[in-house]
């Protein structure tokens, strides 16, 4: 059985065709600059040369048409006809309060998603275009929406409600939603598998540290906390996002810099985080390089990042009355030995006996604490596409 996974941004479309009999990726790729000049789609097949299409794609539909051409091409294609694709799974950023579980992408659901776009205006419109495009390019094919928020549906009310007048929750559904749920779900399940335990017997903290970063507390397989909030701006320091700050900073900056709240929000989303503090880059590798050359602001950006992860781990350990495993994933979590060491050193109180040597690993599942460590720490590469494909099959069963 083969499942096509689609992940749309406003001007991009990433895809993966997965053979669910063995979890192998048959083909994957990305279409970029959708709706712009100089569109480009790069199609990859493991073990073969990449195929690049330099074609303009006015909408996501044209990107999907190129994708179909590539998949069934006589010379390098991986399937003989579209009939071989059993279903399509779509990654959707948020279902708001309307959709808190994966769901079949019926016309009604696609229409309903438009109501969620206020909560993720940069993401949902492109994802709706992807769904509508697929309906045309793959007529009659079953499709499922898998939400980045659904794994967080079990977060209890005291954790998801903000202490502001209750009517704003009732009127506008203002609350914490949490994000990166597909990754947090995948990694917490993988942790149980690697520890040879039932996820229902474990308290797990998943640190998804990438350009966007969030931490989840997963108690007995259920998510009870996530560091992102109403939007993905909350929580940790990120590539260009500030994470949590005192809300009073916003009107203060508006007045001092003569800016609108929207302009300040843009600064918090796009000019803050590692980039804003260091003045060097939003990319973690550039930060560590600059740090090694003695750049003090890069060092400060690094230290803030580490401090926020550490204190969030502390809070979530309190929320679960303990932690059995802390897992690191995402581009930084999987690859930065420095960041993991800085987070986990001096955490003996949490039962962490860090293993420096084992920590010298990149992009591969591995335990990074000593066998005697009361709390197990590990690196677990995430696989959001596989999680989406599995969810797609579950929903259609
Ligand atoms: P996104 O949120 O865009 O999916 P990723 O999970 O791909 O982000 O993570 C991107 C981040 O991972 C970047 O900051 C990048 O510098 C960092 N990263 C990737 N490889 C390494 C590495 N070897 N060492 C340190 N950081 C790395």
Could you give the topology of this structure?
Blueprint: E1 2-8, E2 13-19, E3 24-32, E4 40-44, E5 51-53, H1 60-72, E6 85-92, E7 103-104, H2 107-113, H3 124-137, E8 142-147, H4 157-160, H5 166-172, H6 181-195, E9 203-209, E10 213-219, E11 222-226, H7 249-257, H8 261-270, H9 273-278, H10 284-292, H11 296-320, E12 325-329, H12 330-335, H13 337-344, E13 366-367, E14 376-379, H14 384-396
Parallel strand pairs: 1-6, 6-8, 9-12, 12-14
Antiparallel strand pairs: 1-2, 2-3, 3-4, 4-5, 7-8, 9-10, 10-11, 13-14
Helix pairs in contact: 1-3, 7-8, 10-11, 11-13
What labels would you give this structure?
Nucleotidyltransferase, domain 5, alpha/beta, binds adenosine-5'-diphosphate, six-stranded mixed β-sheet, globular, eight-stranded mixed β-sheet, 14 helices, 397 residues, 14 strands
Describe the structure in your own words.
By secondary structure, the chain is α/β, with parallel strands linked by helices. The chain has 2 domains: 2-147, Nucleotidyltransferase, domain 5 (2-Layer Sandwich), CATH 3.30.420.40; 197-384, Nucleotidyltransferase, domain 5 (2-Layer Sandwich), CATH 3.30.420. Helix content is 37%, strand content 19%. It has helices at 60-72, 107-113, 124-137, 157-160, 166-172, 181-195, 249-257, 261-270, 273-278, 284-292, 296-320, 330-335, 337-344, 384-396; strands at residues 2-8, 13-19, 24-32, 40-44, 51-53, 85-92, 103-104, 142-147, 203-209, 213-219, 222-226, 325-329, 366-367, 376-379. The strands form 2 sheets. The chain has an 8-stranded mixed sheet with strand order 5-4-3-2-1-6-8-7, sandwiched between helices. It has a 6-stranded mixed sheet with strand order 11-10-9-12-14-13, sandwiched between helices. α1 (60-72) packs across α3 (124-137), α7 (249-257) packs across α8 (261-270) and α10 (284-292) crosses α11. The longest helix is centred in the C-terminal third of the chain and has 25 residues, at 296-320. The radius of gyration is 21 Å and the shape is globular. It binds adenosine-5'-diphosphate. Residues 210-212, 239, 283-285, 330-332, 335-336, 362 line the site of adenosine-5'-diphosphate.
């Amino acid at each position: 059985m083969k499942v096509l996974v689609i992940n749309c941004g406003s001007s991009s479309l990433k895809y993966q065709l997965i053979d669910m009999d063995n979890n192998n990726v048959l083909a994957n790729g990305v279409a970029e600059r959708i709706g712009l000049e100089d569109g480009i789609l790069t199609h990859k097949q493991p073990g073969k040369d990449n195929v690049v299409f330099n074609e303009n794609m006015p909408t996501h539909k044209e990107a999907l048409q190129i994708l179909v051409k590539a998949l069934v091409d006589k010379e390098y294609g991986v399937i003989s006809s579209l009939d071989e694709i059993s279903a399509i799974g779509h990654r959707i950023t948020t279902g708001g309060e309307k959709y808190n579980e994966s769901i079949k992408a019926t016309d009604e659901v696609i229409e309903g998603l438009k109501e969620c776009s206020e909560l993720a205006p940069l993401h949902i419109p492109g994802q709706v275009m992807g769904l509508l495009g697929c309906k045309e390019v793959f007529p009659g094919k079953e499709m499922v929406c898998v939400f980045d928020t659904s794994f967080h549906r079990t977060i209890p009310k005291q954790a998801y409600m903000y202490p502001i007048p209750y009517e704003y929750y009732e009127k506008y559904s203002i609350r914490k939603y949490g994000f990166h749920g597909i990754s947090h779900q995948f990694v917490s399940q993988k942790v149980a598998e690697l520890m040879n335990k039932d996820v229902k017997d474990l308290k797990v903290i998943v640190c998804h540290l990438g350009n966007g970063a969030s931490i989840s507390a997963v108690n007995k397989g259920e998510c009870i906390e996530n560091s992102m909030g109403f939007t993905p701006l909350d929580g940790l320091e990120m590539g260009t996002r500030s994470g949590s700050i005192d809300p009073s900073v916003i009107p203060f900056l508006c007045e001092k810099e003569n800016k609108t709240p929207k302009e300040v929000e843009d600064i918090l989303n796009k000019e803050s985080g590692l980039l804003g503090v260091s003045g060097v880059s939003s990319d973690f590798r550039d930060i560590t390089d600059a740090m090694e050359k003695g750049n003090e602001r890069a060092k400060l950006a690094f230290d803030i990042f580490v401090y926020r992860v550490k204190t969030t781990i502390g809070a979530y350990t309190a929320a679960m009355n303990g932690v059995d495993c802390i897992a690191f994933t995402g581009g930084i979590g999987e690859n930065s030995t420095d960041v993991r060491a800085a987070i986990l050193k001096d955490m003996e109180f949490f039962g962490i006996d860090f293993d420096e040597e084992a920590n010298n690993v990149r992009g591969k599942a591995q335990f990074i604490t000593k066998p005697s460590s009361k709390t197990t720490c590990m690196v677990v590469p995430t696989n959001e596409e596989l999680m989406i494909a599995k969810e797609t099959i579950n929903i259609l069963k």
